[in-house]
Amino acid sequence: MLSRVGASSPDALLESVPAGLRSRAELKLSPALDERNLLRHFGARAAENRTVESGPSFLGAGAYHHFIPAAVDALASRGEFMTAYTPYQAEISQGTLQMIFEFQTLICQLTGMDVANASIYDGASSLAEAALMAARVTRRTRICVSAGLHPHWREVLRTYTEGIGLTLSTLDLDESGRTATRPLPADTAAVIVQSPNFFGCIEDLAEASEAAHAVGALAIAASAEALSLALLRPPGELGCDIACGEAQSFGLPLSFGGPYAGFLAAREKFVRQLPGRLIGESVDSIGQRAFVMTLTTREQHIRREKATSNICTNQGLCALRVAIWLAAVGKAGIRRLAGINLSLSTYARRACAEAGLALPFAAPVFNEFVVAVPDLPRKLDALAARGVQAGLPLAGRGAQARGDRLLVCTTEMNTRAEIDALVRGLAA
Amino acid sequence: MSTPGRSGLVFREPLLFESSRPGRSGVRIDDPDVPPVDPVRELGAGLVRDEIRDFPELSELDVVRHFTRLSQWNYGIDSGFFPLGSCTMKYNPRVNEAVARLPGLAAVHPASDESALQGVLALACELEEALAEISGLDRVTLQPAAGAQGEFVGVRMISAYHRARGDLARKRVLIPDTAHGTNPASAALNGLEVVEVKSGPDGIVHPEALAALADERTAALMITNPNTLGLFESHIEELSRVVHAAGGLVYLDGANMNALLGVAKPGHMGVDVMHFNLHKTFSTPHGGGGPGSGPVAIRNILAPYLPTPVIRLENGRHRLDSEFPHSIGRVHAWYGNAGIWLRALAYIRTLGASGLAEVSSRAILNANYVLESLRADYDVPHQRRVMHECVLSDRRQHEHGVTTADIAKRLMDYGYHPPTIYFPLVVSGAMMIEPTECESQEALDGFIEAMRAIAREAETQPGLVTGAPERPIVRRIDEVRAARKPRLRWTPEGA
Questions:
Q1: pLDDT beyond 70 at A398
Q2: Which of A268, A423, A426, B146 could form a disulfide with A351 if both were Cys (CB 3.0 to 4.6 A apart)?
Q3: Which residues of chain A neighbour B186 with C-beta distances below 8 Å?
Q4: pLDDT confidence tier of residue A35, bands split at 50, 70 and 90
Q5: Tens digits of per-residue pLDDT, A42-85?
């Protein structure tokens, strides 16, 4: 090979790298490990973590512990999916393309929207992109954000909108735990309401949409727990213009926060303002149905600085897991699963109330709720000592967050005995 | 036609929604041991939706066959040679998958108390330190979810740096004409103006061209090195000096880091901030377009502006610190795509220093081998020695009515994934070939032979090339129709 390239050694190929820049010493890295020792190293570190499988967990807050059928891992591990590239070469990417077309359809069905993109990094960035989209559509700069939005999502929204001069205003929660969406400033570009909100309360999205439309703004509905879309009236039926959120609940492991799969869906009339990849149906030169990336003139590789977003990758493999999970669980299964989550949270809330713990918000919830717990830090420690992750303490997390408040989530992965033990621990 | 494969039985497969049958289900879900609740009674009829119309109803076997068949319509690295320039389609070692799936990592809840996260935070620090060493820079954040988000973070930090110094007029980002489209888009997303820097006839940026543009309005230079022509920016030190002298900072797009491992460190080139694409250089799966991971490395001058949180090690315990006032804020709900950056750490730990140096050395040799082998058959627009990828053009085939797009499609018939095409924009009809270090000489020879055969066909039987592909499951697709009447979802009406 060297003789064909006319070089005496591989180093001789580096003639265009100035000598002064060439690294003289080897990189200072830990010694290489073979496969056996690599697994030993990571296994030892993994053993230092406490996980949702090593003991009961009532953590939610935007990342949910749900059941993943074995078929999801088996199918998503297929190398033809895993090692494929973005489907620019459509003729040899029809598997990815049809799958994303199905993903787009599934997201539309769940949200009640007309169009959805091929996924986006995570729920937080889907929300930020939704806000940027609303600002482009309305040519306004004020974004009114519910105080019930996930605080991390709010921070990401701020990071994304600050540089281009958008202003964030806060819409407070009322006593029941729902967003008070009136009055809105006349220059509002978008109203953002998360439902169920960060505190678990199911919001009145119809009211938020009406309030937004009354001032010519768009209504953006955010879902941190997408499973709720199987049970609750979806944003598309409630007048919302954009639905965005996090699809992690559908087949993605918690994995310390990523990779997850953000989704972004909208009314048909806004399709040319959607960021990210879109897959469309067409035909090939002999009339067969075929799928292809489309409306790419919105995207950075064509429009460069005039693109709707800088986004390049989507979350292809995560979108695949979501599509497999939704297909396997299916129409009856997802409804049933959502119902089970509601049954468990209802049971847990009643158990808390019966044990004398206060539930500060009266609004209905899906699978997550806030409970006030006297002497919370001591009880959390005691539960942790028994291997229980009791939920997320809200101290320091926004205006609704007093020191005694705990955000508790129950999913189908929790049992009655776990809930009973949790309530005993919190009431003790 | 000699090809590395033959046609086999490939199944047609309808959409999920078309094969759906009422009452079928792929997963059994038993009742919980708490009293069942009627949603309408619990929440009120106004909040509860009807069942989701037309949602899939399939058995587990239906689902398994569906996605297995779809997968067989794809071409992945596991299928064959994938010389996609600037995308670094290298083999994805399976042990990395096993690492990310360890229950002690995959089942970690991101909102857990820090006491529950010590193992994963230690691994994050291990990777941050390795990437800092590879880049020759001081600090690393793993938070960005992809390269483009890394660019956004880097440029945002540059803006914050200038603002903190009261330097409010720096609104311009200088970007060479060979740059990826994400660079100008990331600058625009930060409210900055893009100024294009013309590369010279030799394909690299010259200090004089940059000096004419760098001034008190310059926020940064965003440069890719090696650039997208596969050429090392030999004047990089001088380019950095010019930008620094004008008061700007230097951003390196790390998409092409596969050429630099153990070869040269961006920190020594005057770079102040860069992003990595772990799904390129560090072998995490591309997954049909993500998920990626785009860590950002910085010089200490930018440390106050790092996104929150950062990981700190204090008294032997790791903690997530969000309490620093000049931070640009969060860009991800949690600490990035952990499942991906864990895979990248596994790759780095497997190879070690000498293994990584071997990666770049072989990647460069392979690219030069392909280039020299095809020089007789294809136009080579730039004559400098290439690094890890090379660019050809269709100038000679054009005379016969054959374009780069045709050559790309014909490669599919020969069993290869096409190179990156029509990029970089500075070369008309560009074909950007990145073989990576993973391919053997025999594999490269097979690809070279196919490229030569296509060059011959272009002269003698151009119709074979312009009519390609004929072997994939579909032929050339009508993209105009897809865009003119967008059909972006299945509907029962349209079925």
A1: no
A2: A423
A3: 310
A4: very high
A5: 999 999 999 999 999 999 999 999 999 999 999 999 999 999 99
User: What per-residue confidence (pLDDT) applies to B2?
Assistant: 63
List residues bridging with B139 in a β-sheet.
B298
Q: Which residue has the higher pLDDT, A315 or B70?
A: B70
User: How much is the ipTM here?
Assistant: 0.97
Residue length of chain A: 428
- Judged by a CB distance cut-off of 8 A, whether residue B41 touches chain A is no
Q: Which is nearest to A293 in space by CA: A80, A59, A94, A15?
A: A94
Residues A45, B119: C-beta atoms closer than 8 Å: yes
Residues facing A219 on adjacent strands: A191
Q: Does B363 touch chain A (CB under 8 A)?
A: no
Chain B residues near residue A277 by CB distance under 8 angstroms: 289
Neighbouring C-beta atoms of residue B32, cutoff 10 Å: 18
The two structure tokens encoding residue B238? 């001088």
Could you give the 3-state DSSP secondary structure of residue A173? strand
CB hemisphere CA count around A311 (13 angstroms): 29
- pLDDT, residue B1, reads 53
Q: Do A310 and B151 touch (CB under 8 A)?
A: yes
Q: Would you say residue A302 has pLDDT above 70?
A: yes
Q: Do A83 and B116 touch (CB under 8 A)?
A: no
**CB-based contact B409:B418 (threshold 8 Å):** yes
CB contact under 8 A, A51 and B103: yes
pLDDT for A19 beyond 80: yes
> Can you state the percent helix, strand and coil of chain B, rounding each to 5?
40, 10, 50
Find the closest chain A residue to B31 by CA distance.
Answer: A340
Q: Which tokens sit at A36? A: 């056996």
Query: Which among B106, B126, B264 is the nearest to A17, CB-wise?
Result: B264
Q: What is the pLDDT of residues B409-430, one digit of tens each?
A: 999 999 999 999 999 999 999 9
Closest Cα in chain B, distance from residue A207 (Å): 12
- The predicted pLDDT at position A305 comes to 80
Q: Read out DSSP for A124-168? A: HHHHHHHHHHHHHHHT--EEEEETTS-HHHHHHHHHHHHTTT-EE
Q: Which residues contact A3 (CB under 8 A, 6 or more apart)?
A: none
Contacts of B188 in chain A (CB under 8 A): 305-307, 310
Rg (CA), chain A: 24
Q: Is A14 at the interface with chain B, CB within 8 A?
A: yes
**Mean pLDDT, all residues of chain B:** 96
Nearest to B412 among A31, A48, A92 (CB): A92
Q: Is the pLDDT of residue B43 over 70?
A: yes
pLDDT tens, position by position, B221-241: 999 999 999 999 999 999 999
* Model confidence pLDDT, tens digit, residues B443-476: 999 999 999 999 999 999 999 999 999 999 999 9
A387 touching B, CB under 8 A? no
Q: How large a percentage of chain B has pLDDT more than 70? A: 99
Residue B495 has pLDDT above 60, yes or no: no
CB proximity B303 to A under 8 Å: no
* C-alpha distances in Å from residue A2, one per residue of A151, B347, B449, B476: 57, 27, 18, 39
Whether residues A81 and B188 touch (CB distance < 8 A) is answered with no
Q: Do A81 and B187 touch (CB under 8 A)?
A: no
Structure tokens at B400: 């016969």
Alpha carbons A350 and A173: distance in angstroms, whole number: 23
Strand A188-194 to A218-223 pairing? parallel
Is A259 in Cβ contact with B339 (below 8 Å)?
Answer: yes
Question: What DSSP character marks residue B327?
Answer: -
CB contact under 8 A, A159 and B330: yes
> Inter-chain contact A84–B291, Cβ cutoff 8 Å?
no
Residues of chain A contacting residue B27, judged by C-beta atoms under 8 Å apart? 69, 328-330, 333
Gap from A265 CA to chain B (nearest CA, Å): 11
CA–CA dist A162, B190 (Å, integer):
8
